[in-house]
Amino acid sequence: MTDFADPLAATRAWVETFVVGLEVCPFAGREVARDSIRYVEVDASDPAAALMRLVEECWHLDQHAEAETTVLVLSEGLADFDDYLDLLGMAEALLVEQGYEGIYQLASFHPDYQFEGEAEDAPRNYTNRSPWPMWHLIREAGLERALAHYPDPEAIPERNAALMEAKGREALAASLAALRERS
């Protein structure tokens, strides 16, 4: 049996080395420096409990303006990408149902993330591949402020796709695998 690293430590390392280090998200560096990212481990083997935890994190963000965003690391129960997508759909619907549409946005990441219409081994998928399945709960207002000061934000996805192509699938896969393994 493989010995996996701590999900929260692996996720923090991924955010710092990949997301910020490669500027995959040009806005994340500021939040890492400000220590305004909240990391929460969630056992998603009970989907109802995981969805409740998502709502609780919305409540937490409602009460704590200093926390710009929450990364919910789904450490159990969603290793299968299709199962992950099913629960993600429920999570997005729940945010709307709870009145959080336009207040919080849910970004999604998974070790086997695959964009629709993209080959499974396409490097572009690595823009959304993470060491663990996760939901990134983002304040819409903070995102809008960041986008207003960033030149040509529409170009970010294509810039990231080109970066992933340049890095190559093998290097990206090795880097991601290293984050999940204990050293």
TrEMBL record:
Protein name according to UniProt: DUF1415 domain-containing protein
InterPro entries, per database record: DUF1415 (IPR009858)
Native organism taxonomy: Bacteria, Pseudomonadati, Pseudomonadota, Gammaproteobacteria, Oceanospirillales
Pfam families from the UniProt entry: DUF1415
